[in-house]
Write a structure and sequence with these properties.
Layout: H1 19-55, H2 58-65, H3 71-84, H4 89-101, H5 106-118, H6 121-131, H7 133-170
Length: 171
């Protein structure tokens, strides 16, 4: 049983556990813990996002995410780099924009966009702590696979949309 559930057992008038009140207290306690973690995470993410936008050179972005990079390296680095940065869905967008504007391909940028919040260190720890270690590992693997799939889908959609625009322009 997680550490914050131990002192929340609520007894009804017959002396047995009141499951509904107990679960409600657990939800309220988890919500308070989550809000504290998210607030700290939000401020740290903004700091990291500004740091990356200022200090990461265009050459390093092009080396790993550019058109000349090997596809499997660029997608792997993009999908796993969200685990290094503790980013949430609000702070991943400025990072996505900055690496895309610095010359990253659409595929690696979208893979970074989708995997960043899903495999942030805080979300993995919370998932593994509450749902078990196996679910934490499954979340990492699923997030990486989903982000690469979403990136490939974004590239296909861009090609379809561009061919549609060309067909409209030529007709």
């Amino acid at each position: 049983m997680p550490f914050y559930f131990h002192n929340l057992i609520h007894y009804n008038r017959w002396g047995s556990h009141d499951i509904i009140a107990h679960d409600f207290c657990n939800i309220l306690d988890f919500r308070e813990l989550y809000i504290e973690i998210v607030l700290v995470d939000y401020f740290l993410d903004n700091l990291i996002g500004r740091f990356v936008a200022v200090f990461v050179s265009q050459g390093s972005v092009l080396k790993y995410f550019g058109a000349n990079a090997k596809k499997w390296i660029s997608y792997t680095v993009a999908a796993v780099s969200g685990g290094i940065l503790a980013v949430c869905s609000c702070t991943i967008l400025p990072l996505f924009t900055s690496i895309y504007k610095r010359g990253a391909g659409l595929g690696p940028a979208v893979a970074f966009l989708y995997s960043g919040p899903a495999i942030s260190i805080l979300s993995i720890i919370l998932t593994a702590r509450i749902l078990g270690f196996e679910m934490g590992v499954a979340r990492i693997i699923g997030a990486v696979l989903f982000s690469v799939t979403a990136a490939k889908t974004a590239i296909i959609q861009k090609r379809i949309f561009n061919s549609f625009l060309v067909s409209i322009a030529t007709s």
